[in-house]
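Step 1: inspect the first sequence and its tokens.
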Amino acid sequence: MSFAQTIVENVLRLAEEKKAKKVRGVVIELGELLLINPEQLEFCFQVASHGTIAEGAELELKFTKPVIECLMCGKKYSEPIAICECGGIIKVEGGKDMLIRRVEMEV
């Protein structure tokens, strides 16, 4: 629920700045490593936005993959691992972000 509440709070703050009358849609970019259940987030968003100008807004979720690479040999992986086959240390970039990419409003 905290992710949904954070999204709603930020959307409402932006809507207030723009003097919006209604929020119609929100596009969120989520990193796959957050392990968020999309159906659960959508439900919690609807609950958190109830009674606000964002109530009934369509929530669109886009997932991004992390970049996982060995610092020693440069091999790239599609799934998180603890250590590379060569024994090198793995670097993980991205995949843990939650960004509001677009808010559609009536002003």
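Step 2: inspect the second sequence and its tokens, then contrast the two.
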Amino acid sequence: MSKEHKKGKKNCGTKKSVMLAFGLTTLGTRVISAFSLAAIAFGFCSIQKEARVFNDCVEEIRESGKNASDAVRFCNGG
């Protein structure tokens, strides 16, 4: 009976280490996902600022008397 008990204990130890590795891997991937989502969110903030500056540029050029397509071309650098 003690031999069976030792075998069962050994199998339990390997299962614990596998479950621990799985848990740590899952936690690591969630942390990486959180950082990635934060980076994407900050990227959208800069895109929003750039769009606001572009729209201001287009409005300023249109006020000077040019049509919309010329204003967009000018603000794009062309």
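Step 3: confirm your contrast with the notes below.
The two ends are 86 Å apart (CA to CA). The chain has one domain: 2-76.
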